[in-house]
Every structure is written in structure tokens, then in C-alpha cells.
Amino acid sequence: MPEVKDVQAAAPAQEAVQPAAPETPAAPPRPPVKKPAGKGRQKMIKRVIALVLLLAIVLGAGFGMWYLVFREDTSAGTPLTDVAMLNTIQSVVQGYGNAVPKESAAITLNAAGTVQEVYVEVGQTVYAGDPLYTIYSEVAENNLILAQEEMDKLLEEANNLTVRAPFAGKLMDVEEFQPDQEVALGTKIATLVNDRKLKLSLYFSYAYENDIRAGQAVEVSIPAVMKTFTGRVEKVNRVSFVSPEGAVHFEAVIVFDNPGTLTAGMDASAVLTAGDGSEIYPYENGQTQFYETRDVLAKASGPVVGKGNLLNHANVGEGEELLYLGSSTIDEKIKAQQTKLEQAQESMNNFNAVAPIDGQVLSCALVPGQDVKEGDTAITISNTTTMVVDIQVDSRNIGFIQAGMTMELTDDYGNPCMGTVTNVAMQGEVGTGTTTYPVKLEVDNSMGSIYNGSWLNYKLVTAESVDCVTVPNQCIKRVNDIEGTPHTVVFVQAGSKPDNAIELDPSSLGEGVSAAERLPTSDQGFWPVPVTTGLSDVYNCEITEGLEVDTVVFTGWGAGQENGMGGGVMIG
Predict the structure, then answer these.
(1) pLDDT at residue 29 above 70?
(2) What residues contact 94, with CB distance under 8 A and at least 6 apart?
(3) In sequence order, which residues have a C-beta less than 8 Å from that of residue 136 and are 6 or more positions away?
(4) Of 111, 129, 177, 417, which has the fewest Cβ atoms less than 10 A away?
(5) pTM of the model
């Protein structure tokens, strides 16, 4: 080491100039570290190998994904078959709903009183109209009587503002009225006559007293029209009409229908038949009269606001409006009084209460002799004899549900009960992928086995087909024929083409169709036959036309052999 020697040689010269210092032993020099020659290259090689392995794994996974998922599998595998069978198939609506009491009611007192009788107790089942209790309240009773009397007066006043015909007939001597003309109470409006019938008053000798009676048939003769009409004796009056000849006569009132061509004041006679068959004639002829005549009077006062069929000789029906009088206050008075009457009636109902609904008494705070005050809740009732279940039915099945139909339900323990559909909503509720319609069921709970809040499962067979031809659902295919016409088909296995088989659009068998979706061909012994489908369930579909029982049908593909992967794909 030449550099070390040079340092040691120069030491004596320094000692000649400076006094000698104690010597400090020099630290031995550290030899330089030498790196192994091949380690860096080995580390690099390991990194390259790791990257190659990782790349191989990624490529392998990608290839596997492509092979299993994205690769077009040209190998369909072995065709699987089944046999068309005779079955019974049902279309079923099922689900669950929450049961709640049909109704609940609480009766709250609106006035003070004293409890007289209590007819129910907690837990008792009651029906609408059953008496609950009696509370005497003089104030409430008087308020109701006064309110009803005042309402009756107002209603009569309002009714009298319209002048009506008291019976069917013809108007005569009609008075003239102008709009807004004030009409006083008792004003004559018109004269109304009943000309549908006419009557005739005739006198007969008392010699015929025992030969003439009420209800007896009479032939009435009207010389003016030269016709005879059949009538009857309405009544016999034992009066004493003395003729100028000194004979005493009694009165017989005869009634007959008016064909519309007769009127009052026409000369008329009548002939009756005695018991021995002889004819009985009156002392003298009489004149026809209207069956009834009455003056129509205004029963209220007010201005004229309108007129009905108020014309001379107008035919009117019983109760027909003739004249309308107005009142600026009557409507408001009736409305205000109606409110008072309802309040008074409600108060009385609370004191002589009956059950407003069917149900069970949940609480009763009344004891005979007890004084109660306004605002007290007297009793609460919940209808547990009938429970209500709200269910949701999807748009595919709502058409089968109708009010009045019954539906089978079961509770969580499998206990059965029957529900009746009471309401089907016309407006659906749109959800994710489907629309449902609320349906309300009522369930008899007279045994008390269904509790408030219980969940009930429901099931309804909406349609059923017995001894029908069925195939598995995956047999049903939708295809186009060579003309592009769509068909619903089943591929049947046959040695030759069936008469009803169709030719398929080649595109359904061409490139781009996956193995699982590929259809069998005639080379494989399968032919597409058009069918008409009916009901279906989760497994099978009814065939109503196009297929016979015991026909072998294509269902899907079994394990593929060419791809070596194994495991068939079922089309469903």
C-alpha cells in the first residue's frame, strides 16, 4: 500500500518542528465491500418469470371466460324429449295479506246526564242496532223536540212556496200572474176539476129501495153524443126528494169514466136492472158533473219566480207544479236548522245508544246511576266478527277477480278460512316491472280464531282445464315460417314430415344462434308443428289444438359431446 508508506515517512519531519505528542493508534482501514457478481441478474430473471406467469393466468382466465360465456358454441349436444300427456292444469292467484277488523267505533257523549241502564259488558259481541245503554238527559231531549218542530215548520213553508195540483185533472178559471208579482197567502190560483170521471145524480122511487145498491152496474145514456156508457152506483143517499106528484124519492150517485169527449152539464139518464130482470128508470134525467172540483189556493206568500203548466183547460197530474213563489231566506234557514237538528239528534243517540257496527265491546266506562259529563267516551267497539284482508293482484290475473266471489285463505298454522271479495280497485299501482290492483276481502271470524294483524295466505283457482293435453313449458317455441309469419310451435319427433308441420325461416337456424337457443332440425327427426296454447302453470302448458296425447316432443339439449365440457343446457 504505497499511500500508507508515504504518510509514515513524513512523520519524522513533523517531529523536528513540533514537540512530540502522545501517539494515537491508527484505526485499521476497512476493506471495500464487494457485491456478488450474479445476484442482480437473478433478481431480474425472477421478476420476468413472475410477470410471465401473471400474464399467462390473465390470458387463461380471459380465454376461459370467452370459451364458457362469449364463445359461439356450435355444438348443441343431444336433443332431449318428453311426451305430451293428459293432465289437469290450473291457473292460480296466490299471495298473502294482513287481517284487520272491518270497523271500529267510539261513542263520545256531547252532553251531561245520568246512566240508567247498561246492556253490554267488555268482551261481548254485539250487532249493529243492538242497544248499548240508556242515559237520561232532559236538556238533550228538549233540544231535539224543539229542533224538529222548527225544521217541520221551515220545510212546510218551503214546500208551500210551490203550488201543486192536489189531484189529476183539468185546470179551469186560471188566474193571470206576472214575474215578481207578490202573491198573498190564500190567493186563488185556479180551479181544478177531475174530468177523468163524471158523476150523475138521479132520483128513484122508494119502491125500488131494495133493488138499487152501491156497486151495481148502470147503463148511462148521453143523448148529445147518442152513446151509452157503463157506470156503477157509487153510493145511495136515503134522502126524501118529493116530486110534484107527491111521490118520495131517494138519491143514487152514479159514476162512469169519461172517454175524453164528455164534460159537465150534459143531459144524461140511466137505466138499472131490478132483481126480477125488469128495468128501473129515474124520476127524471139529470146533468153530468165533474167527479171533483176544487179551488187551488196559495199556501204561502212571496213573489212569483216561475210558472208551470198554468193554463186554462190544461191537463195536469197529481202533484204537478203550477206556480213557483220565492223566498230570499228560506234556504239559509233550512240549512242552519238542519245543522241544529243533526246535533240534537246525535246528542240523543248518544244517550240512547245502539251499536253502530257489528263487533266486540272493547271498553265500557258506564255504571247504572253514574253521572256522566260531556266529552266522556262511553263505549268502544271493534268489528272482529268480520276481518278485512287487503291483497294485491297483478295485471295478468286481475281480470279473473270479481266482487262476490270466494277465495280460500289459511293462517300461519295452515288453518283454513274463506274470504269474499268485496271490492276490486279499477286503478292499478305501477311497480317495478308490473302493475298490481288492490283487492279487499272480508273473512268471517265468528269463531274468533283470527287476530288483529294476522297474516293470511290466499289462493284462488282462476281457471281449470281437466284431462287436457299438456307439454312442458320449454317445449313451446315462437318462430317465423319461410314467409315471415309468426307461429307458436312444438317440435314433434317423427319419421317423416307431419301434414301440419311448417317450413321455418332459415335465419332461425343460421349463424349467430347459440347452441342453447338452436332449434332441432328435420335431419334430427324433429318437425315444427303449430299449436294453440291454453292455461299454463310453472311447469306445464295446455295445448288446445295441434297436438295429440303421447306425441314425443323436443324439450331442449342434453350434454354436448363436441366441446368436451359436458353438462346439457335446458331451455326453459
Answers:
(1) no
(2) 457, 458, 459, 460
(3) 113, 114, 116, 351
(4) 129
(5) 0.37
